[in-house]
Amino acid sequence: MKSTHTNVRWIQFILHIVTLSLFLIVLWQSTRFVFQDDVRDDLRRGDTLFTMKRYHEALTAYHEITYQTPDFAPGFARRGMVEVVRGEHDASAKSFAQAIHLGITGIDHDIARLYQGHVSSMIGRHSEAASFWRTINEQSEIYPLRRMLEAESLLRVQDYASAEIIYRDTLQHPLPEEWRVLVHGRLATLRASSDPISAIQELQYIDNPPDIRGVARLPSFATLTTPLLPQAEPTPQQLAAVLRTNSEERPQLLGQLYLDAGFFALAEAQFIRINPTNPNALSAAAYAAYTRWLAGDQQGGRTRLETLVEQHPEEPRARALLALTYIAQNDAPNAHTQLTIIRSMAPRAPDTHLAWGQWYAAQRDYLAATAAYRQALEDAPLDQQGKYALALARFHADTTIELCDNGQLAAEEAVRLSPDTGAAWTTLAITRFRCEDYVGAQNAATRALELNPNDVEATYYLGRALALLGDRDGARMALISAADMAPASSWRERAETQLTTLGL
Is 67 helix (H, G, I), strand (E, B) or coil? Predict the structure, then answer.
């Protein structure tokens, strides 16, 4: 009887333990779900900062999430994204690797892979980029953006035909408006070299899309991909202006647009096609050779420029471009020879003086360089003096040579001659700050930002000036803004260093 009673008590005890265990499991699960909801709320707050381009604060928010919840994969993915935007590629690689290790899935996975591929493409690892992007399947809501970035990667390796095919394919999918506009701009740019009429049609599609079904808003999380949106170079407005020119002028102007955008093969093709009887033929040939040099064939490009100079010694453009290649390759004697001849051909041309200024600066003869920049201003036509005054002021600011004497006078002259030019006011702000006129620096930086609200230099020096004037809150806001304006630049690093140094 006693044994039976003991068995019953044991059974009751075991049932009690099981019940308690189940209760604890349920409690843990419910706590876990509540906690995860809190983490998702924190993630959304970080995402709001990210989409507002407040990257400095977003990184802090994401770091806090990964510290508090080290097994939360989306937190590491978001941290990797903001690190990409800030140019911290090694750190982003570690963050993404941790997110993948923790088993990130769904749209969070796809966005992370989109960013990983972007980084690989930007540093020239195109095969690696393709492998990241292939993990985003056609059913993904951001698949069209994957295709867009694949086309951009092909542009970087000058595979223009394949890029055009993919751009056209993306138009078969819903695209955010700004991405759709970019596609038509890219297609117009690629078509302009061989089919100007087709290029004009593509530009018209920007305002009047042929199929409204191809224009759509992606879900709200797609705003996290906005930093990956490429810059439109050339802009649709620039391209449209060139396409409106006559057929004789168009190749030279279009080639210059391509050259500035880094589309070297297209640029060279335009320069080469200019009729030899055209008055700009020699200049175009010089630019074709220079384009070859910029594209990486430095020996071939320089040899062609040297041949042009030998065959046409009176052509100043070829000599100027040849001198630039010599300066870039630290070939001082040959650069000096070409510049001497250029000076004999155009002794009072402002650009001749600027070229000499660059040469002297390369030799670290800054006093001679200053004199050359000043001579450029003195010989400039009245309607161009503002440009050369700014060049002189900027030289003083960048080198700090005679900064608080002649440099400050030059900056004030630049502002007087170009009162509506933001860069002139920025240069004045820099000069005044370094010469310990902090109120003057604040005023100049404020005016620069009225003219150009996205001027990172003006914002940085405004923050520095406010800090020294005792306005810590204003300084903190300005320095964080500077860090966020150019997150992948030295300006972000400098701004964050000041925030730390000043304890802001």
Answer: helix
- Rounded (5°) CA angle 45-487-436: 115
Query: Could you please report the per-residue DSSP string of 148-172?
Result: HHHHHHHHHTT-HHHHHHHHHHHTT
Whether pLDDT at 385 is above 50: yes
Is residue 41 in some structural domain?
yes
Amino acid (1-letter code) at residue 5:
H
Q: How far apart are CA 56 and CA 64, in angstroms?
A: 13
At position 227, the amino acid (one-letter code) is P
Please report, for the domain that includes residue 110, its CATH number.
1.25.40.10
Task: Provide CB contacts within 8 A for 466, sequence distance 6+.
Answer: 442, 472, 474, 475, 478
Q: Could you give the CA distance from residue 136 to residue 74 in angstroms, rounded to a whole number? A: 16
Query: What is the three-class DSSP state of 421?
Result: coil
| Confidence category of residue 217, pLDDT binned at 50, 70, 90 | low
Mean confidence (pLDDT) of the chain:
90
What is the C-alpha separation between 209 and 190, in angstroms, rounded?
A: 18
Beta strands in 38-120 (DSSP E): none
In one-letter notation, the amino acid at residue 282 is: L
- Does 255 reside within a domain? no
Coil/strand/helix, residue 215: strand
Provide the pLDDT for residue 110: 96
How many residues appear in the chain? 504
Angle at which helix 264-272 crosses helix 250-261, to 10 degrees, equals 160
- Asked if pLDDT for residue 185 goes beyond 60, the answer is yes
How many alpha carbons fall within 13 Å on the CB side of residue 6?
3
Confidence at 222, pLDDT banded by 50, 70, 90: confident
Report residue 218's pLDDT band, with 50, 70 and 90 as the boundaries. low
**Banded pLDDT at 28 (limits 50, 70, 90):** very low
Task: Identify whether the C-beta of residue 83 lies closer than 8 Å to the C-beta of residue 91.
Answer: yes
- Rounded Cα distance, 391 and 398, in Å: 10
Q: What is the pLDDT of residue 278?
A: 87
d(CA 193, CA 177): 26
Quick check: is 35 in a domain?
A: yes
Judge whether residue 438 has pLDDT over 90.
yes
pLDDT of residue 6: 54
Number of domains in the chain: 1
Q: How far apart are alpha carbons 456 and 478 in whole angstroms?
A: 10
- 399 part of a folded domain: no
- Residue-range definition of the domain harbouring residue 90: 11-136
Summarize the confidence of residues 333-342 as an average pLDDT.
93
